[in-house]
Amino acid sequence: MSALSLFPLGNALFPDGSLQLRIFEVRYLDLIRRCVADGSPFGVVVLLEGREVRTPEGHEVLADVGTLAHIEECHQPMPGLYQIRCRGGARFRLSDVAQGRYGLWEGEAAPLADDPTQPIPAALQPAADALGRLIASLQRDGTAPASMPVAPPFRLDEAGWVANRWAELLPLSPRRKRDLLAQDDPLARLGEIHAVLEEHGLLEDD
Predict the structure, then answer these.
(1) Residues 6+ apart with CB under 8 A from 5
(2) CB 46, CB 88: distance < 8 Å
(3) Domain limits of the chain?
(4) Cα 157 to Cα 7: distance, rounded to the nearest angstrom
(5) Which of these, 84, 49, 80, 54, lies nearest to 69 by C-alpha position?
(6) φ/ψ of residue 90, rounded to 5
(7) Is 94 in contact with 108 (CB distance < 8 Å)?
(8) Of 20, 9, 10, which is closest to residue 151 (Cα–Cα)?
(9) What is the arithmetic mean of pLDDT over 124-128?
(10) If you classify domain 4-111 with CATH, what class do you get?
(11) Beta-carbon neighbour count of residue 16 at 10 Å?
C-alpha cells in the first residue's frame, strides 16, 4: 500500500479514460502543483454523498475504489486556476481514508489487477458497435481531439476498454459506477453495460 491524495468527483474515471478538470479550490491547487512537479498521479474516487466543491456544512462520502489520474497537460490561465487533462491509470482499493490540510482527502491505496485483454463475444458486440458510432459521429461533427470524451487509441475490440468508456459516459448513479469500477471481470462489466444500453434503446439491430 502507499499513501495517495484523492480527488472525489461525481463521475468515475476508469483506466485509459480521459478527464479534464478546472482546479480552483485551495485543497487541490497545491496537490496539482506537487503532481506536476514530480510527475506523480493522484487518485480519483467517486463521490457517493456530498458535493464536489467543498462547503462548510458539507459531508462527503467517498467510494472505496478509484483510479490513478496521470496529468498529461496542465495550463494556468490565471493565478489560482489550473486547467488539466488527465489519463486514467491503474485501479486501486482504499483504506484508512482521512481529511488532511485544507480538507484534502488522503488514503492508503492498494493496487488492483489490470483487466486481462478479452475479445468481445458476439452477444455483446452491439455495445462496441454503438460506441464506435458515437465516436464516428463526434469526429464527423468536428469535435476537437482535446474535447473528445473518449481518447484514442480506440480499442473497440477489447471488452474492458469498451465497458470502461460506456461506464464513464452513461448517466449512472455514483454507486453503480463504483460497482462497475470494482468489477474485476471485464466481460461481466461489459455485460452490465450492454443491459443498460439495451434497456434505454441505445443499441441498433444489425
Answers:
(1) 31, 42, 43, 104, 105, 106
(2) no
(3) 4-111, 122-200
(4) 31
(5) 84
(6) -75, 155
(7) yes
(8) 20
(9) 97
(10) mainly beta
(11) 21
Q: Which three cell numbers stand for residue 161?
A: 476498454
- State the pLDDT at residue 102: 78
- Contact between 167 and 189 under an 8 Å Cβ cutoff? The reply is yes
> Residue 199 — φ and ψ, nearest 5°?
-60, -35
Q: Provide the β-strand partners of residue 8.
A: 45
Rounded Cα distance between 162 and 6, Å, is 26
What's the pLDDT tens digit per position in 149-185?
999 999 999 999 999 999 999 999 999 999 999 999 9
The answer to whether the 4-111 and 122-200 domains have the same CATH topology is no
In this predicted model, which residue has the larger pLDDT, 26 or 169?
169
Q: What is the rounded CA–CA span in Å between residue 32 and residue 12?
A: 19
Asked if the 122-200 domain carries CATH number 1.10.4060.10, the reply is yes
Backbone angles phi, psi at 18, to 5 degrees: -110, 135
3-class secondary structure per residue, the chain? CEEEEEEEECCCCCCCCEEEEEECCHHHHHHHHHHHHHCCCEEEEEEEECCCCCCCCCCCEEEEEEEEEEEEEEEEEECCEEEEEEEEEEEEEEEEEEECHHHCEEEEEEECCCCCCCECCHHHHHHHHHHHHHHHHHHHCCCCHHHCCCCCCCCCCEHHHHHHHHHHHCCCCHHHHHHHHHCCCHHHHHHHHHHHHHHCCCCCCC
